[in-house]
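sorry for the late reply, my laptop died twice this morning and i had to redo everyting from scratch. anyway the thing you sent over, i finally got around to it. pasting the sequence first so we're on the same page, its 151 residues, then the predicted structure underneath. double check i copied it right bc i was rushing
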Amino acid sequence: MEIVEGIGIGVAVIVVALLVLFVRRALFTRSGGIIRLSVRVTTVLDGRGWSPGFGRFVGDELRWYRMFSFALRPKRVLSRKGLAVERRRLPEGQERFSMPSDWVILRCTSHHAPVEIAMARSTVTGFLSWLEAAPPGAVSPRLASQDWPAA
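ok and here's the structure:
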């Protein structure tokens, strides 16, 4: 009888864990502004270290959540103010096996350290638009430096 109880408790724990993962994902994805995004968390081995997840745009921040995590807080937060794209490239070597073929890898610099993110080619345009956009009421540094004719 003890074995059956142990198996029952184990199955219940697994079901609850899966339920928490799916509820967490459903809460984040229903609010909009969500993209599929992989972040390179380690560069020890060439082409490895990619962690799948999803990004959520919240104001001037891109918050990245790991796909398979119980955490409610983002694993990484990228601020639009300190983020710049250095270069973009296609997956090469081992990376081709860890992500879809239509994804693009962006090497970015932020205030803290360089970061590599991968996303679908169709998502890159939206990401770059968000990165270059100024919040409502703010003056873009590019526009402020130009001489505009008086109205």
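Residues 139-151 have pLDDT under 50 and may be disordered.
thats about all i looked at so far, will dig more tmrw
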